[in-house]
Amino acid sequence: MADFYQNGVVTTLHNLSRRPTEELEAELLRFSQKRPMALILPSLFSELEGEALPHIVEELTQVPYLSEIVIGLDRATQDQYKHALSFFDKLPQHHRVLWNDGPRLKAIDEELQAQGLAPKELGKGRNVWYCMGYVLASNRAESVALHDCDIVTYNKDLLAKLIYPVANPTFNYEFCKGYYARVANGKINGRVSRLLVTPLLRALKRIMGDNEYLEFMDSFRYPLAGEFSFRRDVLNDIRIPSDWGLEIGVLSEMHRNYSHNRLCQADICDIYDHKHQDLSLNNDQGGLSKMSIDITKAIFRKLATQGYTFSNEMFRSIKATYFRIALDFIETYHNDAVMNGLTLDIHSEEKAVEMFASNIMKAGENFLANPMETPFIPSWNRVTSAVPDILERLLEAVEADTAEFMEK
């Protein structure tokens, strides 16, 4: 059970009473009369064949308050798209599958690419961005939740707790970030958040002094959680990265666009486990290695927009300060694990910290070498200004795909 402590500048909504999910859902059903709700599920086709997504779909069939479920489907052939339509057909809510690799949506993407308005690389960010566009186009929801499709410990109460803060009409939150303890199978997980993001933020605060953005980011208990919810108007202005910096980029946009009292984080589950990425010690183009570089660059880019100047000398100072703080955290987490009867491999933890420290330098070198890099996807406001009918055409393309392949 969580405590009631409020840390940092962002409101924390705790799980203090183990309130029955049925009570939350009854309230959400009532809220849905004023604030219809939707869920975005960014998915790879391979996840349809895994153990997590079939169970997630079974849980969602029992959710009474959603008006719409939008599934973004990546890396799927025509036959696989047809299989996906059948796979999700058991959902009782209105739902649509965006076939991102299909000819209709690829034609829209190519048109936007020609005008410099489309995501520049494949990945979760691109998938989420097009799903957001569809939510705007369908106009069925005022409150929207998003979570991953590889959560093997999924339960429908996760969704209820995640969307409640932005669905309750007596609350003024525009955005809610989910958090949870990354503990499963007797181990503490979440290495990138524990051993990179938090120590890096603390190192930057030590070097740069008082900084409101760093304090904001350090207020989130699990900044890399892929689960968040938001009000529909957030979708128009948000600019998200297309790489692994998605979660950091979303938080940075919330910091830029909204005051702190319009943002919150919520404890959404006791146990959370999902597909684990390889550490990729010898490959900085994959796994946790690439993830750590993208995340670090996202933080550096945000600080640069505040007028901070970076140099190789400064990056060396950041790396050295980070390394000492991260090593101290390993002892902290080890002792926490021992007291709770969990295991934590100190050698593996130190190897991860050594890699992250090296990747801080790589991220810094990349940042300095590519000053014109713009990994952010344009906001939908900008896209609709340039192509006024794009949302209508996106909606038509998804409906046409559904009509053509649903019964074949």
From TrEMBL:
<dbReference type="GO" id="GO:0016740">
    <property type="term" value="F:transferase activity"/>
</dbReference>
<dbReference type="InterPro" id="IPR029044">
    <property type="entry name" value="Nucleotide-diphossugar_trans"/>
</dbReference>
<keyword id="KW-0808">Transferase</keyword>
<protein>
    <submittedName>
        <fullName>Glycosyl transferase</fullName>
    </submittedName>
</protein>
